[in-house]
Amino acid sequence: MTDFGIVTDSGTIRFERLLPGPIERLWAFLTEAEQRRTWLAAGPMQLWVGGRVELHFRHADLSPLTRAKAEATPPIVMIGRVTCCEPPRRLAYTWAEATGAESEVTFELSDAGDRVRLVLTHRRLDTADLLIDVAGGWHTHLRILADRLAGRDPAPFQPECTEIETVYRRRFAAA
Predict the structure, then answer these.
(1) For residue range 88-101, what is the model confidence (pLDDT) as tens digits?
(2) Banded pLDDT at 124 (limits 50, 70, 90)
(3) Binning pLDDT at 50, 70 and 90, where does residue 151 land?
(4) DSSP for 115-137, written as a single string
(5) In b/e form, how buried is each residue of 55-79, taking b as 16+ CB within 10 angstroms?
(6) How many CA atoms lie within 13 A of 163 on its CB side?
(7) Total domain count for the chain?
(8) Whole-angstrom Cα distance, residue 79 to residue 167?
(9) Could you tell me the CATH number of the domain that includes residue 83?
């Protein structure tokens, strides 16, 4: 297992992480707005197929170490629909992109001893730039999730995301 996401098919990237359990705790970090806002985005999520997903992104709020808070700036809002909900093992929803394209993200959870294996797959990423952007974003968000689950304050989102996108651009160009 590597920290870097891998391209498994055209327009598809997959991440795998071993995270502190139990599985129900990780499920809560994926589905409950108050938990999810600490590593990804706040917002309501209707946990049934066809249910509405609202993600309210405020990257500056993900770390207490961020210097400039974006309190006056409205969040970036992403709206999607749940396509699969099998608590506490599998969650998938559409991910509406700013370009108007709609991709899909899937989270799969399985027990791995005293830890939980998380497999995150993001499909239908239709351009190389979008694939790199999504890879850098998920890579950084998953690091923040690991920190939160371990009880650590995460480093700020934006500097790491910018740096890791550069790494993904080189990795994908070499492939």
Answers:
(1) 999 999 998 656 67
(2) very high
(3) very high
(4) EEEEEEEEE---SHHHHHHHHHH
(5) bbbbbbbbbeebeeeeeeeebeebe
(6) 6
(7) 1
(8) 29
(9) 3.30.530.20
